[in-house]
Amino acid sequence: MADYEHHSYDVIIIGAGGAGLRAAIEAKQRGLRVALICKSLLGKAHTVMAEGGVAAAMGNVYPEDNWQVHFRDTMRGGKMLNNWRMAQLHAQEAPDRVLELEQWGALFDRTKDGKITQRDFGGHRYARLAHVGDRTGLELIRTLQQKAVSMDIDVFMECKILRLLRDDNGAVSGAVGYWRPTGEFITFSAKAVILATGGVGKSWKYTSNSWEGTGDGHAIALWAGAELIDMECIQFHPTGMVWPLSVRGILVTEGVRGDGGVLRNSEGKRFMFDYVADMFRAETAESEEEADKWYDDHTAGRRPPELLPRDEVARSINTEVKAGRGSPHGGVFLDIASRRSAEFIRRRLPSMYHQFMELAGVDITATPMEVGPTCHYIMGGVRVDADTAATGIPGLFAAGEVAGGMHGSNRLGGNSLSDLIVFGRRAGMGAADYVEGRADAQTLDVQQVQSIIDESLEPFSRETGENPYDIQRDLQELMQSNVGIIRTGAELDEALTQLEALKVRVDNISVKGGRVYNPAWNLATDLPAMLTVSTCAALGAQARKESRGGHTREDFPKPDPEFGKVNMVLSQPNGSGMNAEVKLDPQPILIMPDDLKALFEEAK
Amino acid sequence: MADLTMRIWRGDQDGGELVDYEIDSQEGEVVLDVIHRLQATQAPDLACRWNCKAGKCGSCSAEINGMPRLMCMTRMDQLPEGPITITPMRTFPIIRDLVTDVSFNFEMAKRVPAFNPPAMPEGGYRMQQIDVERGQEFRKCIECFMCQNVCHVIRDHEENKVNYAGPRFFIRYAELEMHPLDTNDRRELVREKMGLGLCNITKCCTEVCPEHIKITDNAIIPLKERAVDAHYDPVAWLGRKITRRTKRSAAEAAADRP
Question: Which residue among A70, A125, A131, A237 is the active-site one?
């Protein structure tokens, strides 16, 4: 019988990036007892990595901009697979959420008349991204962190959640986890749980994600009976660093292209002009001259093709490299050095300058960068109600990257930070509405808790067995090669077979040493979630026999209107956990009302 | 070919020792890469913190050959020949190996009276770029806590920790003090309760800052001047009394805190 400490709250929030923090602030403002739980120290979540900005149709630079245009850009960027209601709420509410950040102490870059300035990004018709140089995510997380601290929200740092608990009526009732610094177990009972755990990128070899991106929230939601949707829709950001090998995958902000940077192949050609899809032809420049005029005045020319949505750019880079026109280390060239002054580059892109100088010894004011696609973001996720962020399980909510639907099959840059604050707030509201007037959660099911703890300790009980780091490496290789940027049916079948073999190995992990800050054990407890989300991604990719947004099938290279009408819904109807079967069921997407449909007709 | 010797402090609060690991070098690696390879091959339970691996989150602070550095931003090929010594930050209590208990910093963060702007006008606040840039320099802080680690006021004097916010929080106070919108007055608080006077501007904090924030010159010295002005200058005192924009006193500001 293991000892554990126990806490009771109205709402617990798992994950303390932008969405988790924003949700916690909202719930706390409603007078609820709130706990914020995070796997790392507070303020280190992946939000901190976001660079370019937060998309909001504030109209500070282009007064023509409004929520309808932002909504339309978002839906088209997502290839119309988006939950239209989420996209609508997001476009409508993002400006207020950005202004709110300044009420809490954020300092965005300004226009000449003192308003928040906005920059261009891929897929956005107007300059729309409020930003602070190229460290907007840091500004966002620090602002929310300082706000949360000033409100005295209880924070449980370096605390890993293993599983959710449910009561006899099927409602979520709490969670079980452990403190990483001590290895001691901890239980929470709560009337509502908000998942804000971010993404899944750590299951791929080349990723911009940190060690935390192991899909914990996706997995514990699925295991608790919630549904996931469209897990095959994974964004490979077109510009990650490719060299040195040790930094491969680290993000290079889209802001480089928004600020004038262009992509060239080994022949020096701006190849993106060759890859403009029909859907975007009308609004994309046909020549370099036209494109170059656009940066200063969006009415003088059409958009440069470098600023097409991320899925388009990533696939094009992939094709260039495969055709033998890549850079020496297997990427392409991102050139801003020849196009903007050194002073401009250092002011607008200070952390990119710093990052390349320190890590690659490359001065980006003098030399082009070498870049290539890196696993960056999952559009799919926990199925939620747009207005309340509620999942299908009573008392369970999800917001941010862990939630699915908002971005359809491809996310536009800048729409993630705005997603966090719009739906973080809505999750906080949804949970508060649910909780108010509800009696305290039932007492813990001691047996359920005990079995979760016992399961997590199994690696210590094996004298010999698998090394968790080996399994992680093999998983990353597998997902990179078989469920990567371009997929085929045969490779996906193979991936699903191999994933089952990896699960057997996870069940045979052996870990030495104690529980105090033991990274091998921590990884062992992350791996079941990683295997679960990888399985979901492969199943979705296998079932979606078309190419759409972040999901590209070599054997089905075109979008198929029939598949455009369905979400790939994943669930575990029989059993729960890494080894239980995951069922896939295509279900119709939400139908957009006519007044919103009209926005797409007008634009034609 | 194992051509590298990594000399890493292993232990916990009860003590520990430097342990040598032999490993082969690989092109373009940073110190954190080598630590990760050691975890995967030789020392699975070697504890270290990290997140972004791109110098943006400030998690992987350690002392490399005695110098506080981010492990993710320290290239192996820029370190001198011979064994490379990695030890945890010395100012904070050890948890295990390279991981220290940095909760001191989170406690100090709680003691900062909150930002308090006037009501927002329709369409948002107006501020000039030049005015926001002063605060933006300090908001680049990634909270690696290396400035706190290297500050001798707490590195060598544990007893000062209760009364000393440290460089990280002096830039936070300076940022709020210089914020175009803030209305709280924290000058008396930093002077009396946060130990601003204990800093004798040796600039060690500025030297180790990975974000190159001029902590001493741009934050601490101006803050000292303002705090001293507020406390000792009767003209300034009278001026504050009669100017329209009144900042609240430290006591009032601190009362915001529970």
Answer: A237
